[in-house]
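Notebook, student rotation project (T.W.).
Task set for the rotation: take a protein with a known small-molecule partner, predict the structure of the complex, and write up what can be learned from the model alone. Partner molecule chosen: zinc ion. Sequence and SMILES entered below by T.W., checked by me.
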Amino acid sequence: MRGPARPPGDRRPRRTLRAARRGAAPAARAPPPLDIEIERTGVRGSLKTGGEARGRRTRSTRRRQDAPDLPRRPVDSRTVGKVFRGRDGKTFRPSLFLTLTLDSYGRVRSDGTPVDPATYDYTRAARDALHFSKLVDRFVQNLRRFVGYDVQYFATVEPQRRLAPHLHMAIRGTISRTELRQVVAATYHQVWWPSTDRVVYSGNRLPVWDEAAGENGGYLDPETGEVLPTWDDALDAIGLDENAEPLHVVRFGRQIDAQGVLADSADSRRCIGYLTKYLVKGVAECHEAETAAQREHVDRMAEALRFEPCSPTCANWLRYGVQPKNARRGMTPGFCKGKAHRREHLGYGGRRVLVSRKWSGKTLADHKADRKAWALARLAEAGIPVSNPADPQAAYVWERAGPGDPDVRPTEHRLLLLINERIQRRRQLDAATQNTTSELSATAEAA
Ligand SMILES: [Zn+2]
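Predicted structure of the complex:
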């Protein structure tokens, strides 16, 4: 155990710290029988069959009373839906374009701002946005179980004008609106996190870090020196509490938009337009605040997200008297660096593009070959010769080179050449497609 380096003026009760250390590393228990057997055979070490191995936390998966039950069917491995036969014998297999939104948080005007900001439910809006990606995952899972095949999709998450995320999803195969409605109504995600009803620490009165608390250090109450419950402690307490309620339940709003779409039609092109419209933009850029009312709406949403925990590792847990998972020195509530808190993300920290595994039916190598063929075709169209700019006549012959080879250049030199070659290629491709990607910052995050 690490020796506690306590400054002379530290008057925190020693007992509390000691108790904390004991709590973290439980007193030696009798080794479980299997471990004793193993020891007898001369093998060292422990299988951790007993109390040391922390049992998997069991959490309630009870369905809430208000969620309609969903019949389940075994899921086939097929990825496509029904084939329909027309009168002329022609077969077609329509696909689906689905839009799912979140619930209402209060009436909004056409510019997306609330009619009454005082009653608009920003807390629920913030929590729904934070957990939206889980809801989408749950929806796909339920949909597959319900329709009985491995539904494939390409989806994008975008903010609506009111700044709530919504989902556009192209689904291969068709599913009736009644069935979709059933799945949407039955889909929810419960967030089994500690309660945030009570603010325990705020302002200047914040938990203090102590290296000697717990196994790897931890946070203590600034006055009593008592170690705050760890993330695992807090979850265990929820698991043991019969009457525990989830911190939040996120579900879709009642508004569903589903259209059948045939491949290679005007409709399908319009839907692809929807799917790709905002892809290159950040969440905040999709609807730029232009009026004072819109700016205030963004401000209030960002404020609601400031102290809302974004994940188990969020610094905001300290505000509610719980140590974040993987707690470390220097965490301050209200200053979590999680993506979801940032104004440009407005609570949605997940992926913007969601593609199912078998959507394209191609492997990574296939996609790579596609991209290469596409780039070569664009270069050929623009009349740009494809060659190594550093050595236009070069034709490579590959062989293994050792450090003693006289013509092997130093690593830095080779790296610079590679970077140069990469820049040249990018420029050629930009010229061929009239792109201006060189203007983009290198540190900008991909959508
Ligand atoms: Zn956070």
